[in-house]
Amino acid sequence: MLPPPSIRELALPDEAATTALARRLAAVARPRDVLALWGDLGAGKTTFARAFVAARAGKPVEVPSPTFTLVQTYDLPGGPVWHLDLYRLTDCEDVWELGWEEALAEAIVLVEWPERLGPLLPAERLDVRLSAGTQPGARTVRLEGQGAWQGRLETAVV
Question: The pTM is what?
């Protein structure tokens, strides 16, 4: 059993703040890490994922939403990043057909709609819970680090 998660709550006043947070987390992420991106439609999950992938690439890169393809992969110098959007997944077991086992073994995995994984969602992960803020474009985020993310979360989010 894992110890209680490290938790940080932040106000993100605009999209630039969401992007900056994604960049800081990308800097400390490692292969085999899972980042579970929680939030309603329009909460900023894809914005976060785009900034994360671009930061790992070290340059601007096209990051389409995987809403219809369900998964996008990026072979980057620091290791692969897999971006999954599971909104349309009807059975958690279907994730195996997307290469879930391979992703967990070698990549940093960003998962939008992680609740669709049910019992397949790894216990050791970083939960990024995004929600709308009080102003247009503003967000709040609750970061919950389990396992290896407990220590790294404090370094990334100062």
Answer: 0.92
